[in-house]
Amino acid sequence: MRIRCQASADLPNQATHIRRPGTAPQIRELLTTTTTAKYRPTLISCAFRRSPESVKMAKSKNSSQHNQAKKAHKNGIKKPKTHRYPSLKGTDPKFRRNHRHALHGTMKALKEVKEGKRDAA
Question: Which residues fall in a compositionally biased region of kind Basic residues (predicted)?
């Protein structure tokens, strides 16, 4: 139980203070005894209630590396799949133009070898 002693009306600027009695007899004594005219006790909250500041949720754990290596190796760590023909996106335009003509010439030469018009190199 928290009891706040407020300043009386004749002393409006006086600071208030908070007392925290420890045992039930002390609480009963504070509630039953008369106080001086200077301070009037005011009941604030029950002894079993807590202020919102003290009832915050506990922070949860963000991550743990336990068992992660075993799980990763259960089916094996795979290498990333590589494509047969990597993309030429972002390469030099002059190189791409030349590459296109070179591929056309290569296909033409392979076609001639297949037909027997040209000797294999």
Answer: 68-86
